[in-house]
Amino acid sequence: MHHALILSLLASTALAGPRRPHSHAVATGEIKCPIVFDGRVKTTTELTDFDSYGTSIFNPDYVKGNDIKWSQIIKFPAVNGSRFDDAETHKPFEVTISDQSIFQQQRGFRRAGLQFQGDTNSGSPGSSGIKTIHFSLKWDAQRALNLSHEYLNVWHEAGDYSANQFNFEAGSILGQSSLARDTWKVLDRKNKQIWSTPILKNEWQNFAVTLNFQRNTLQVYYSKGAEPLKSVTSAVSNDNSGQGQYQIGILKKPTGTSDVVNSGYQQKNLNEGLIYGGLFLEDSANNCISL
Ligand SMILES: *[C@@H]1O[C@H](CO)[C@@H](O)[C@H](O)[C@H]1NC(C)=O
Ligand SMILES: *[C@@H]1O[C@H](CO)[C@@H](O)[C@H](O)[C@H]1NC(C)=O
To answer: Please, are residues 248 and 255 in contact by the beta-carbon 8 Å criterion?
Structure first.
């Protein structure tokens, strides 16, 4: 760093006097382990930055409606950041779905799913070792999800697209009507629920899922608001093989069909969204995890 710059930084710190600890909403969670993919959006990011490789931290081309761009899908809601956002550096973002959220020929789904740039379908660092995906969610009452439907929000899909190693979901899980609708749920590769918690409408909920690709386990962590994450499951046995990619956003399944990809009922004039913050993939080698 330039000498003059250091001096001026020191000077401005000194002149500013003692900082009030809570003068603005700062992150309370410290990230302790190396970040593999950082999905936290910078305060300087503009919506159109999501439309090209040079400016987006995500894949600008996938997985979204054929005729719309990410700049039409993502919104910047006026909410404070979550536990792992730094208010000076990061801002929350909202992923939305509309009638235009039809990917390729998949007319049954409405979907908008972000992939980290660099998370390749084969050989990604996200699919080996021990990795923890962190994300915080906030409900948007103006664009509420319809919990009569099944939603996938965060998952890891195998490279051959034959299965998801885990699904983080909301709403009514098709074929599993005994599960409550108004919960966030983690399902294993066999679509068996391993944990759930009620959806809160007024505060951030923070989640982390550790995928141990060496021992084939899943472990879930959770907290609300600014509280530290706590382990809410043990490391449960799960088949994490098959590599693939993470996806983060909304995939809304239809109702009234056995062919969810291609047919079924979706309401018209759809306007739904979910607010994300504190999104990153952490290297949990040696069981490192940020709480
Ligand atoms: C954000 O945090 C600040 C400081 O804690 C608070 O005054 C403000 O009301 C919050 N804004 C929202 C939209 O929650
Ligand atoms: C929610 O979804 C159900 C099932 O598709 C539908 O019958 C209902 O009209 C939807 N509610 C709203 C508010 O759109």
So the answer is: no
Q: pTM to 2 decimals?
A: 0.90
Query: Would you state the structure tokens that stand for residue 113, as one six-digit string?
Result: 């799913």
The atom number, within ligand 1, closest to the CA of 78 reads 13
Q: Please compute the mean of the pLDDT values over residues 170-191 and round it to a whole number.
A: 98
Whole-number pLDDT of residue 27: 58
Half-sphere exposure of 274 (CA within 13 A, CB side): 27
Tokens describing residue 41 = 């959006």
Asked if the model's pLDDT at residue 5 lies above 60, the reply is no
Longest dimension (CA), the chain: 67
CA pair distance 107, 115, nearest whole angstrom: 21
| Ligand 1 atom 5: residue of nearest CA | 25
Residue in the block written with tokens 């195998």: 158
Residue 4 CB partners (closer than 8 Å, separation 6+)? none
Q: How far apart are CA 185 and CA 218, in angstroms?
A: 13
Distance CA 248, CA 153 (A): 6
Which amino acid does the sequence have at 77? Answer: P
For the record, the structure tokens of 60 come out as 């600008």
Question: Which domains can be identified in the chain, with CATH numbers?
Answer: 34-287 (2.60.120.1160)
Ligand nearest to the CA of 144: 2
Question: Whose Cα sits closest to atom 10 in ligand 2?
Answer: 146
**Cα–Cα distance list, 35 to 39, 82, 101, 170 (Å):** 10, 17, 30, 27
CA-wise closest residue to 218 among 193, 198, 244 = 193
